[in-house]
Amino acid sequence: MRNFLGKVIFLLIGFYAFSTAAFAQTAPSLGAVYEFNALASQKIVNEGGTVVNASVGTSAGPIEGFPPGEIKRERHEQNLYAELALAEALLAQTFLGSQLPTATLNDGHLGGRTLTPGVYRINGDASLNGKLTFNGQGQENAMFIIQVANKLHIQRAEYEMLNGAGSINIYWVVEEEVTVRRGASAIGNIFSKSNITMNEGAQLQGRLIATQGEIRLTNNVLHFPADLEVTLSKTPGSKGVNTYEFGETVTYTIRIRNNGPVNENGVMVPVQYSGNLLSYTSSKPGTTFSGNTWTAGNLNYKEEATLTITVRLNMAGSGFLMADVSGYGIDEIRGNNNANLTFCVLLSETGEVTGPSEVCVDESYVYSIALVEGATRYTWSVPSGWSYTLLSPTSIQVKAGENTGFIKVTASNTCGEGPARLFEVTPMSGPPAKPGPIEGPGSLCRNAETLTYSIAPVANASSYNWTVPGGWTILTGQGTTAITVNPTGSGGQVRVQPVNPCGTGEGQALDVLIYDEAPAAPAAIRGTTQGCVGGTAAYEVSPVAGAENYNWEVPEGWDILSGQGTNRISVRVGSSAGNVSVQVENACGTSPATTLPVAPVTAAPIALGPITGALHTCAVEVGLIYSVDAVATALNYDWRLPEGWVITAGQGTHQITVNASSNGGEISVAAVNDCGTGARSAITVGSTQGAPATPGPITGTSHACVSSTNNTYSIAAVRSATSYVWTVPEGWSITTGQGSTSIQVTVGTGRGRVTVKAVSACGTSPESALSVAPVATAPINVQLSEGNNDVCVGATVSFEVLDAVNIGTFIWEVPAGWAIVSGQGTPQVTVKAGSTNGIISLTAGNGCGEARVEKSVTVSTLPPAAPGAITGTQAVCGSSNQNYSIAAVSGATSYAWTVPAGWVILNGQGTTAIEVKAGTAAGDITVTAVNGCGDSNQNATLAVAPTAAVPAAIAAIHTPQSSFCQGTANLTYSITALPDASSYTWEVPAGWTITSGQGTTSINVTAGAEGGEIAVTAANACGAGSTKAIAVAPQVMPLTPQITAGSQSPCVGVATTYSVAASAGIDSYVWEVPAGWAIVSGQGTATIQVEAASAAGKVKVTARNSCGGSGAAVLEVIPSEGVPAAPAAVEGPANVCIGRSVVYRVASGSEGAAYEWSVPAGWTITTGQGTEEITVVTGEGAGAVAVAAVSGCGSSHETALQVNGVPIAAPSTIFDRSTPCEGLVYEVEVEAVAGATTYTWGVPTGWTIMSGQGTPRITVTPGESTGLISVTASNGSCSSDPISIVPNKDLAKPDVSFPNVFSPNNDGNNDTWVIQNLQNYPQNELVILNRWGNEVYKSKSYRNSWDGDNLSEGTYFYVARLRMCDGSDKTFKGFVTIVR
Q: What pLDDT is attached to residue 198?
């Protein structure tokens, strides 16, 4: 609410009636128009940095110039939403234009007028050059409609909004153009059926709507007031929606919304509420809440934000919640800017009820409470069967009945009842019953101390009376259900009796024995040392003489299921290893523990790994070994063998020795422990009677590459074979695989054989062999024959290899749909062409590698069609490079081009586009399409004609005959046509518009606001000729002139001169003089000479040019018939402080006279020279203030007043001397305040000056508020102006805070390690160590400047030593992490 152009208005969709006694009018429905600052049917054009805060839209044309302009909301360019908005704008415009006028403004000049709500009609042009006042007369939503029949010009505008008037309800309905001049401002909703122009720097608070034209913007600001809304809610009370208990927690919700249609900045919400603040949250990140002000920051259009406050109600009576929302801009819809809620808070709970809680039936007792603040009434009640007498509002006397219950008291006020206070009372009808058994040790060790004996509470007992054996001492608990005692001497009986207000009940007793020593330790524990987790196990020891109890302990996670306290327990095994232990005890103590280590297992052993051992055996083999890797939790291994096999050693272990039989089968093994048997591992073994069969064929290359490695030769596995023996030619070597079915070899240079034999326990097979012949290189220089690149579908063609050296294999591939007729695997292949293009490829290989060669082939089905039209320039400049092209012709694989004689094809022959160098001869460019099936039957032709040079110079530009005003339309500029020119390019000054003729010899333009040059350039194919330019300067509406010379009291009958400062762009000056005066000369010029008559009046002058007339400059004149009398006296102070402003005036003046004042040297007249009163700034020294009366007939004698300038003691700077040791201290330098005798200090509200008021130095205790520390110096006569400083309370803070992380990455945030409040301790030392303890940084008097010194990311250790206020050194240590 603080900025003239701060927000966008809120217009409700629909019709709203505005009614008063003088004017009743209905606002139009804007609908979608509400969203826009600028809306046009044709286009919106911007130049420069225009800022539009709402949306921008066009229905049928472009939006140009954004960027550099900025649209803060949405851009609707020729879309459905813009079309809808324009349709609704036309309806609104028609509605506004149809309203009957309540007044007609005949002259169309709006400056100086005051408008009240109504409809105003201007039957011509309208202009605004001055102040326009809108007076809403206190009406709600007062509306103003201004109908303009022709144009609207806003030149200079000042707006005053009175009595509820708002720009949101101002509507301009203009039939023709609207222009807002340079630097001017406009408000309201401006509808135009033509164009709207915002000149340089003009501003708008409202909307621009060009329903049938365009909008032009230049470095403008378009804005509208935002409508901020606040609503409140709260959680309901526990005693009703609006009724709460004292101390109850309630949550307030403050919701704000920007109803737009623009974004708003600086949104703040002051909040007042009942209760102590407990917590708050905001839905909008980055906002703050001080406890009474919510700083919400920026709030976008339609954005909502909520502040949720939780409080505890701490005051009974009426509660409230109030909030007000505002932003940086104005808000013309004020009804929803604030809201409030009220509710009721009940009284707090009453204090404790005092009186006995246990009573005897039929006895009388008194109960009372303390007074409750704010209570007006107290209500008491007692249990059923009881009676009471009111002693006072806060005290009663009761007679106890037989029923247990509560004495209840409730305080109340006008909001209702507060929480009731209950006091439970229990009546007793007689003494209590006998207690149950006494709990406590029945046997003791001699010299035992601090033993406890207890009983269960006895119904109706209020106390207990204990007795113990002789010599024993009751330490605590007498009167309660439990006592602690020190036993001494012998045993005896512990006894207790219950007591209540009605008497003592029957007693209970316990006999106690005393022992002399503890029992011995148990013997060894019997039980498993493993156990399965989750299973059960038993542990026991032999009975121990003299033991009263057995205390067993098991590892963590184990459970004792039964037997605790006995010599045998049953346990559930847990997962932890540890000890099972037991101690025995009696009253004299506990024996040493006996332990048994245990290591439980969680499951049966894991699956075993593979079994190693022979898979194929001979039936007579003995001593075969099979094994698996041992597993940690296994206790045993269970082996199983084929029938007839015998384990000779190792049963139960992870390795066995066996004798084979003639049977094959499975060997398997499983690991076993307390949790069971693990998964079995197995292998299948075979047993044979004889040697293996001959291996099958050897697989591998017969033409391996010399010296190559990893060449593989392999065979299929031979039944019953356990190994294989390979051989290779001399010079070859087997690198891996000997003994297996596959070997890797390194190839030598010799030819020979690769052989292999199969081996088993029963013998060796015959060999299998492969002949090999190594080669030295892979195929090289493989090439396919030329030709056959473009073929016709179905044709048979051949492709062959030109050089087949060292090629062992030939693999041909053809495109899909083609067929290899013959030759696959040979150097030449014959194929039949299919219908698709593709690749013919050959892969040639030998043992050293492969070589692949490809050939692209194109298939045609018919000769190509004729080419289409040739694209390119027909009129060209000779010797220039030109490009010509055609669209690709379906089926064509090449193109044949021709050019005129003397022209040269530079590149592109055979393609669809060529580059040529033009010659001097005219002629035709032709092109023919070609493919494998033939040529096209027609060619394409383009006639071309070269030109020799650029156009000749333009002789002159023909201009309008007279001067013109900025914005004047249809100004014609033209030249004589040049015979060799093909086009003309015109340029006009910035802000001017070429409305027609661009490219021709004559243009029509609309003048802009600034002068400049109009230029034109002729061009042809060889380029642009020289540019011809002329200077142009439009006139602007004249400013009101200022009368700079001429007497206000001319002498009657004497010639007097009046003049104004002449300005450029003025055609004439029109002067007016009072009745009876005569203008002797100069009418129409800037200076006139007049002969004054005796009549007083006004000298007026108006400047005129093609744009119209200015406002009138006026000089009030009172003719004088003689020299005026001298002033009677000068009134004003004689002694004045130097530098102060002071007023001097004449005691009584002469009518019509001016006054010529003078002051002492160094003094300055700031205002009033020529009038009866002047304002003076005092200088140093003394002198006279003098004045003479002056008229056109001469000057009077001077009248003077002697004056003296008194020096002022003025301090220049307040120094903040605050430290944690001295507190907040502020000081001025005495030497800089010469002559000062007293100093008057000021501090913020709530702060306290502890010492020094009146002196140059003060000590201050801060308060909660913010503000300034100020001081004024005085020397007894004059006081200085106050100077001030913003205090920093942190300078007195003793705390030092060391951040544990910073990010030195040069992004401007946390780039150095800043220790909070370190500046308060300038004597300091800082050392940084890395993780190995090495010093990486050190500084004395550290100033928060360490930037990590290019250290790597990680954590470092710091040691800081600070000199404290008492002179001692304090060390701070910790870690700091660098994150880059």
A: 94
